[in-house]
Structure to design on (638 residues):
């Protein structure tokens, strides 16, 4: 029997990304639909099922051309039980049996996981992770997400909170408030939001910086602005990048000491800084990690961009 | 065919522990021999092989009564390659093909792993870990060792440094020197040695403490002394335990956020303090971890004592 295609779904706060993917991980067709939370999980599931049928029809593909569905969502998810325990960003779902609902609506077997975990799995399978059996993935975006591959498998954890790498405490006393209700999480310092906030804090403290003029003109500052200002020699921006890479280097080295990875994949908006991020990060990481642990590690920038989630979801569907 | 017995070996700096273990993990017979490093790996392997044959003869067991050998040693080890990359405490071995040497000397298939990893595997299989599919194990002894079970499997890592949990950096700036060459490792604060040193530091700083009298009389202070003094209300001892559980709570919570375990097993000499350790540790842990992550976790004291290593080794041999 021929090895069948699969369907990868990545449910996000703004859009649901979908893709038809070959058994070998090539995207045949991808598209997205808006995330509409008002109809609850049932409404969203119906939107997804209808959209899949429409796209299959357009492409002259039948139900039987696909083996099953993998789906990711932002929240605490149990693969084993097929339940989304909690997903704040898509309408505050609680204990939603997503595998069952989506299975009934589409007629496919459905496997679900946390979106950041699936992005890690995607990078492992077809991206910069290059099938490294032991791999850490960080997504530095609005927040900080993570995924861990160890012994060649995505880790799933006991109750849907595995690889919540953005919530490692990096500032034990004080530190900024985090959406999780605590303080000092990695996410509050090393996310795009955290980096921008560090710039605003500096401006508020009256630091002399090229970022002030920009802020006065446009009313906003992005992480990208901070990296650009640092490249132009701005002292405050350079200090912020030094701080961010120091905190991130410490957090990643502490994780590397546990997992002993051969690849560390950095993705998300902040990773667009490329070597301007990776070079200082590598040097801070080496300072904090065991020499032998460090010698096994290669840092790489994620290569799949926004497709990582649907490709990881497809890999999950394949299993 | 009947499921065969296996042989578990735990090579330590002072003694080599050996056990004949049933397929189900019951110890039939256990014994130990001194660790003699002078003859190099070949000498030690010969000692072990001879001792196994002698004990088999004594017990009227034959070579064929056993399926194979699992062995642990303190160092950086590759299970896959069967090589001890580096083992400082047993004569400074470097790149020793232990599986091959021990296999040739005994006629059995041999699988090797780091000793702390095997202790974790032992506790998982037959001890306090109770087959929790996601589990962290810490051994708080002279140093701090660790092992991680995730997705129901012992993690092996990329180059033999997996779960070196004692070398998580817990004091980013300053901190005590560690044997690994860096500073601020968990081991420098939360090992038995670290706890005793904190007491000595307090005495040197002229703190008023019942530990001083004891030190003046006996010339030494142990971690156990510190726990006993704290139970009697000694302020310095109470502060040390507060500090140790704080540092340990932070380190373990940062690891729990990655692994999302349902069990955290604490072993080694320091764990003999029991609830006097676990109660403050739990409260510090909860402060630093995600609420949902914390809700999945049970802290338990290791139950196999010095047998954990040979039982974990037996489990490895069985696979």
């Amino acid at each position: 029997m021929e090895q069948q295609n699969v369907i990868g779904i990545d449910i996000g706060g703004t859009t649901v990304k979908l893709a038809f993917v070959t058994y070998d991980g090539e995207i045949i067709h991808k598209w997205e639909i808006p995330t509409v939370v008002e109809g609850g999980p049932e409404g969203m599931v119906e939107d997804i099922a209808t959209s899949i049928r429409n796209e299959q029809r357009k492409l002259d593909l039948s139900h039987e051309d696909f083996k099953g569905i993998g789906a990711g969502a932002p929240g605490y998810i149990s693969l084993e039980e097929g339940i989304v325990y909690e997903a704040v960003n898509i309408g505050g779902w609680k204990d939603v049996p997503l595998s069952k609902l989506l299975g009934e609506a589409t007629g496919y077997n459905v496997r679900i996981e946390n979106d950041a975990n699936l992005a890690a799995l995607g990078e492992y399978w077809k991206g910069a992770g290059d099938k490294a059996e032991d791999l850490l993935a960080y997504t530095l975006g609005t927040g900080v997400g993570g995924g861990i591959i160890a012994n060649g498998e995505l880790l799933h954890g006991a109750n849907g909170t595995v690889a919540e790498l953005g919530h490692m405490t990096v500032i034990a006393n004080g530190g900024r408030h985090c959406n999780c209700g605590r303080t000092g999480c990695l996410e509050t310092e090393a996310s795009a939001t955290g980096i921008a906030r560090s710039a605003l804090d500096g401006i508020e403290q009256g630091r002399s910086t090229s970022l002030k003029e920009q802020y006065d003109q446009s009313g906003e500052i992005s992480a990208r602005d901070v990296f650009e200002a640092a490249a132009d020699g701005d002292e405050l921006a350079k200090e912020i990048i030094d701080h961010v890479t120091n905190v991130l280097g410490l957090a990643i080295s502490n994780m590397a000491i546990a997992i002993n990875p051969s690849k560390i994949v950095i993705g998300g908006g902040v990773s667009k800084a490329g070597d301007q991020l990776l070079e200082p990060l590598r040097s801070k990481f080496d300072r904090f990690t065991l020499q032998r642990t460090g010698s096994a590690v290669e840092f790489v920038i994620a290569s799949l961009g926004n497709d990582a989630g649907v490709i990881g979801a497809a890999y999950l569907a394949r299993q």
Notes: Chain B has eleven helices and 13 strands. The longest strand of chain B covers residues 27-34. Chain B has a mean pLDDT of 96.
